[in-house]
Amino acid sequence: MIDDLWYKNAVIYCLSVETFMDANGDGVGDFQGLTRRLDYLHGLGVSAVWLMPFQKSPQRDDGYDVSDYYAIDPRYGTLGDFVEFTHGAKQRGLRVLIDLVVNHTSIDHPWFQEARRDPASKYRDWYVWSKKKPKNADEGMVFPGVQKTTWTYDELAKAYYFHRFYEHQPDLNTSNPEVQAEILKIMGFWIQLGVSGFRVDAVPFIIGTKGPDVTTPKEQFDMLRTFREFMQWRKGDSIVLAEANVLPETDMEYFGRDGDRMHMMFNFQVNQNLFYALASADTRPLVKAMKATKSRPATAQWGQFLRNHDELDLGRLEEEQRQAVFAAFGPEKHMQLYDRGIRRRLAPMLGGDQRRLELACSLQFTLPGTPVIRYGDEIGMGDDLDLPERNCARTPMQWSGEPQGGFTRSDAPVLPVISGGPWGYEHLNAAVQRRDPESLLNWTERIIRMRKEVPEVGWGDFAVITTRDPAVLVMRYDWRNNAVLFVHNLAGTPREVAFATGIDGEHGRLLVDLLGDDHLEVDETGRHRLVIEGFGYRWYRVGGLDYLLRRSEIDSRPDTRAGRSGG
Ligand code: NOJ
């Protein structure tokens, strides 16, 4: 059924049309602006772009409140502009994924308006109602502190409606076969317009049973199979990337034991432990999370991310671990959100230290799966903590030192462009970094290129090689008789490590440095010994005999280090 597993070795770039590039000068990013920036994305080397919601919406939750699934929000352009964009992407070999937000609609959606007005309307049963206030109305809020309840009274309907998220986002009754059919229709529509799949919002809530008497929602996993089948009948290489922050025990239910449900899922378990590892220089819980999420069907894939457009959710860590991450990366109350996370961007959390940013990104790129990066992180953009909730990390892309960072000609951008101070567009922007070979932008471009050349990470099996130092993580990947090996030092001080690759014979003797010229030969004890600088990282290919034979040739080459800062 699947005719291409492109997502197994890809790099996905997430962006919001609203804040990427404004072509018409009204202060809001648009499809024409994004289309002009396709060469930038192509140059960066990403394989796919994931667009956050751009359908018609009153924008009370940054587009995650859709009022028409078949229309572009006029602020971003027209359907024609969208098709021009997907065409331009295709010309450059870039795939397009889009958000699919079907757990709920906006209250402004005509379906909801009709449903509340007319109890006999077919749309009444598209939502979830209760005559009386359900007992658990004050439980299960996703945005604690901001959201007061999950059931709100509607005067017109004379009933309470259920909303897992904000009260302006009534949940669709996804058990209703008509609603399910509509979801497929929405997918079919966008697939026809050239997208390669969907990042599906809030999957556990879509498939969970809903109603006033439901205390523990039951997942209807079959729904996921229906989505996949439909998509692949329409277009064999389209995928579903699920947002499902669930426990490792249930992962296989989401992927499907026969690989017949979600193609990809974000690895929230690894993400949270990765931040703990960065905060504490203790990689053991991260290794545990990697092992707990190791099994997946051959065609399934993890999406590995650092930060996304939401808060960094630390809800799955142990209390002590969570406090350690708060202390390191978000010590002040206004940096935290919803009693569980940190709302800052990556670069400010890591103090803008390029060595540390490279380390974090290198780790992300070498975790089992496909990296999903967020616009602006390639230049180390900052945040604006004066903006409410998650908006602080959603400010416009900083293209240049021109007014408004080159994002818009308007002096009233949709969200303020970060200006002044260490994160201001005046000196932190893509144009400046392009000219500097050692910049984070150029480093990111190089690491993306190299990541695509090590398909072992996306396709292969990993093994963690034990060292005595919990600050140092050594991972090996094997695929089709090739092996690669990665070393990361999460501590800020140099470490000496010794390890055995586990590959016997001549083949495992030499580790060929993929980012520099520090090739590593086995010592007399049969191990590889390395002194690695603070926040250092190494990517090696486990060399074969041919490398040993060409050894002298390698040695005599001038120093061509690939710009490893601190290395
Ligand atoms: C998850 C999205 O990532 C978030 O931004 C949004 O607010 C909720 N789902 C509701 O759609």
Q: Can you walk me through this structure?
A:
The chain is of the alpha/beta class and 567 residues long. It folds into 3 domains: 6-103 and 174-451, TIM Barrel; 110-162, Oligo-1,6-glucosidase, domain 2, CATH 3.90.400; 457-560, Golgi alpha-mannosidase II (Immunoglobulin-like, Sandwich). The chain has 19 helices and 24 strands. The strands form 6 sheets. Strands 1-2-5-9-10-11-12-16 form an 8-stranded parallel beta barrel. Helix 10 runs antiparallel to helix 11. The protein is globular and about 80 Å long. The chain starts with 11 loop residues before the first strand and ends in a 12-residue tail after the last helix. Residues 559-567 have low confidence and may be disordered. 1-deoxynojirimycin (NOJ) binds at residues 61, 64, 101, 165, 201-202, 243, 309-310. It comes from Rhodoplanes tepidamans. It holds the Pfam family SupH-like_C. InterPro entries: GH, GH13_cat_dom, Glyco_hydro_b, O16G_dom_2, SupH-like_C. Residues 14-435 form the Glycosyl hydrolase family 13 catalytic domain. This is Alpha-amylase family protein.
At a glance:
By secondary structure, the chain is of the alpha/beta class. The protein has three domains: 6-103 and 174-451, Glycosidases (TIM Barrel, Alpha-Beta Barrel); 110-162, Alpha-Beta Complex (Oligo-1,6-glucosidase, domain 2), CATH 3.90.400.10; 457-560, Golgi alpha-mannosidase II (Immunoglobulin-like). Helix 14 packs parallel to helix 16 (440-452).
